[in-house]
Specification:
The protein has 484 residues and is of the alpha/beta class. It folds into 3 domains: 147 residues, Alpha-D-Glucose-1,6-Bisphosphate, subunit A, domain 3 (Alpha-D-Glucose-1,6-Bisphosphate, Chain A, domain 3), CATH 3.40.120; 218 residues, Alpha-D-Glucose-1,6-Bisphosphate, subunit A, domain 3 (Alpha-D-Glucose-1,6-Bisphosphate, Chain A, domain 3, 3-Layer(aba) Sandwich); 98 residues, TATA-Binding Protein (2-Layer Sandwich). A 6-stranded mixed β-sheet has the order 1-5-4-2-3-6, with helices on both faces. β4 and β5 form a beta hairpin. α1 packs across α2, α1 packs across α4 and α5 packs parallel to α6. The longest helix has 19 residues. The chain is globular, with a radius of gyration of 22 Å. The relative contact order is 0.10.
């Protein structure tokens, strides 16, 4: 008897497809997702047998998910090229290296065990944006599938091709002592080797593959992971600590003193470093990022501009592409380097390499380089639970609440709201440059909250308490994943 089809429509998110397996999707559902994506690829490329690169992460169930996905792709006429155990950027790179028509990476990134998902893309260097995801959802749920005769082959040793590409052009002169933490995720197969080969002295932390994630989720925004890296940096007197997420497209940074440096500030350091040799460039940052980009004296001196845009790797890489920006940075640790520095997609290991170049060029400690930018007090990214079918409505209502507060000149910690940005949720800024953000998570049933103040830690906390209060008043908010 064939398996009953299970596929929850809410798994088609803004730019990633993610479900709890097999509560919200089963293998029959995954096969239909493959049929839907295969149909979409053939429709867009106008090819009968488009070539699709497929890879998977190291979760216990990822290979069986990949097998079901490939079955669907092949049934539409796609020629699948399976590169095996991969990071998301390994799959992105393979599309350029092998000149393929599309990619599908089986991963739930940093989500807890039980989650699965697929990152997909057709145009090189880009992944699905909301329009493509909506189209895929429509094809898949309505079973509007093309049928054809596809095939499948395995590409051997692609891990080495990917590693060599990063190593060959990124040798450094300075011996940087780096703690490399992978949270027992897939990056453990890649990051230590690559960083060692470019010239770093590598201290491995949780780099052995273990899909149970025994200590913490491989997530560079997770405070547990960051504290472990900090401890290892101090114990080993290391120059830097790198923390990679489950599918290797993000990196978190700990400086030589064991302090976490949020990725938006690392992005600012890299942008400053690049701006002197790439004058008049554009940079894209997400709405969770520090307000320092807006009036940075080094970027202004080099006539560089910054655009604040929607959070999400797909949104930022597309904006970098469309604006022909030099680079893009997300607070979550996704960095995007456009030509001539890269292909425009996010690669956590390449991002770590760019930080190594920063240290190599300045011949200073990271803590000394970070002191060159103004100090701000930033919260971590906090995610209170909010149901998928309610979260966008909750945010819409909160926008109205905050717009009224601005109009009425109501003060929060003696500050009036001066500016509101609603490109992605609501980011509201105060007279002194402090700000708060409320947006709906694009890949989990939660909201996303961030606050920052250039004035004081106390003001940062008071802005959070204000947000927390108006959230509680909605009656739609559950527990936070972490709180300040």
């Amino acid at each position: 008897m064939s398996e009953i089809l299970k596929i929850n429509p809410f798994g088609f998110r803004e730019y990633d497809a993610r479900w709890l397996y097999d509560k919200d999707i089963n293998l029959a559902g995954i096969t239909n997702l493959g049929k839907g994506f295969g149909t979409q690829i053939i429709t867009h490329t106008k090819k009968n047998n488009p070539r699709v690169i497929v890879g998977h992460d190291y979760r216990s169930y990822s290979e069986e998910i990949k097998t079901a996905l490939k079955k669907g792709l092949v049934s539409t006429g796609c020629s699948v090229e399976d590169i095996g155990l991969s990071l998301s950027p390994t799959v992105y790179f393979a599309q350029f290296n092998l000149n393929a028509d599309a990619i599908a990476m089986v991963t739930a990134s940093h989500n807890e065990n039980g989650w699965t998902g697929v990152k997909m893309g057709i145009k090189k260097g880009l992944t699905h944006a909301p329009e493509e995801m909506e189209e895929l959802k429509h094809i898949t749920l309505n079973k509007n599938f093309i049928t054809g005769k596809g095939d499948e082959k395995k590409i051997k040793d692609f891990q080495e091709i990917y590693k060599k590409n990063l190593i060959s052009k990124n040798k450094i002169n300075r011996k940087i002592k780096a703690v490399v933490a992978c949270g027992n995720g897939t990056a453990g197969v890649f990051a230590p080797d690559i960083l060692r080969e470019i010239g770093c002295e590598v201290i491995e932390l949780d780099c052995n593959l273990d899909w149970t994630f025994p200590k913490y989720n491989p997530n560079p925004e997770d405070l547990k992971m960051l504290h472990e890296i900090s401890k290892a940096v101090k114990e080993n007197k290391a120059d830097i600590g790198f923390g990679f997420d489950g599918d290797g497209d993000r990196v978190g940074i700990i400086d030589d003193k064991g302090n976490e440096i949020f990725s938006d500030k690392i992005g600012l350091l890299i942008a400053r470093n690049l701006s002197s040799s790439h004058k008049n460039s554009k940079f894209i940052v997400d709405v969770k990022s520090t307000g320092l980009y807006a009036n940075d004296e080094v970027l202004e001196k080099n006539k560089c501009s910054t655009i604040y845009w929607k959070t999400g790797h797909s949104h930022i890489k597309r904006k970098v592409h469309n604006e022909k920006a030099l680079a893009g940075f997300e607070k979550s640790g996704h960095f995007f380097f456009n030509k001539p520095l890269g292909y425009g997609y996010d690669d956590g290991i390449n991002s770590a390499i760019q930080v190594c170049h920063l240290l190599d060029n300045h011949n200073l400690k990271l803590s000394e380089i970070i002191n060159k930018i103004p100090k701000t007090f930033q919260s971590p990214t906090m995610a209170p639970h909010c149901n998928d079918d309610e979260k966008y409505k909750v945010v819409k209502d909160l926008i109205k609440t905050i717009e009224k507060i601005k109009k009425d000149k109501f003060k929060i910690d003696n500050q009036e709201i001066k500016e509101i940005l609603t490109v992605n949720g609501i980011r509201f800024s105060f007279e002194d440059g402090s700000w708060g953000l409320i947006r709906a998570s694009s890949n989990k049933p939660s909201l996303v909250i961030v606050t920052e103040s250039p004035t004081s830690d106390d003001r940062k906390i008071k802005i959070f308490k204000f947000i927390d209060r108006i959230l509680k008043e909605t009656g739609k908010i559950g527990e936070y994943d972490q709180k300040i």
